[in-house]
Amino acid sequence: MTKYETLFLCKPELPEETIQGMVKRLSDQVEANQGKLAAVDMWGNRRLAYPVSYRGSKYVKGFYILFTYLGGGQTVAEIERTIGLLEDIMRSQTVKLEEGVDPATITEVAHSRQRDEVITPEAVFVKEEDEGEPLAPVAPVAVDAGPAAAAPAGTGGEPQPAPVEPAPVVKGGEEDGR
């Protein structure tokens, strides 16, 4: 069997029951077409990169759901047909991940609901081998840019840009010899 992912974008104001109904309908479609559902990830409401116009309204947010499943071309065609019939799904995209996947490797459907996470700067700078101890802040490194960037005396030590010489004035294709 072939492994696919279908990401679809729903209207942001949908109630939880409507979203669960869509997920149930699509997962039933996968099973009815000799497919096997591997994972359902509900990413939640996210800000869109650009406004999406759908049925006379413009949306700046959308509710994302990612389906991962095994199946054939008929399964994908039926999922995409069903998505087209559901009025609450604004956009969708299906991607083939890999071929020749054994359905026995999928033992349980993974359902996850991701919330907006706040990542602190300390969490970004953690080394695995230090068992969770944050790294020390890095001090800025001075780079020697040569004599042009040296600060003149009495300016507080700030580097000044190198002076730029004006280009020669050209008249009628010849240099002005004044």
Features:
alpha+beta, 3 helices, 34% strand, 178 residues, two-stranded antiparallel sheet, 7 strands, Alpha-Beta Plaits, 5-stranded mixed β-sheet
SSE layout and pairings?
Elements: E1 2-10, H1 16-32, E2 36-54, E3 57-71, H2 73-85, E4 89-98, E5 110-113, H3 121-124, E6 170-171, E7 174-175
Parallel strand pairs: 2-5
Antiparallel strand pairs: 1-3, 1-4, 2-3, 6-7
Plain-language structure description:
The chain has a domain at 2-115: Ribosomal protein S6/Translation elongation factor EF1B (Alpha-Beta Plaits). It has three helices and seven strands, in the order E-H-E-E-H-E-E-H-E-E. The protein has helices at 16-32, 73-85, 121-124, and strands at 2-10, 36-54, 57-71, 89-98, 110-113, 170-171, 174-175. The longest helix is centred in the N-terminal third of the chain and has 17 residues, at 16-32. The model is unreliable at 115-132 and 134-139 (pLDDT under 50).
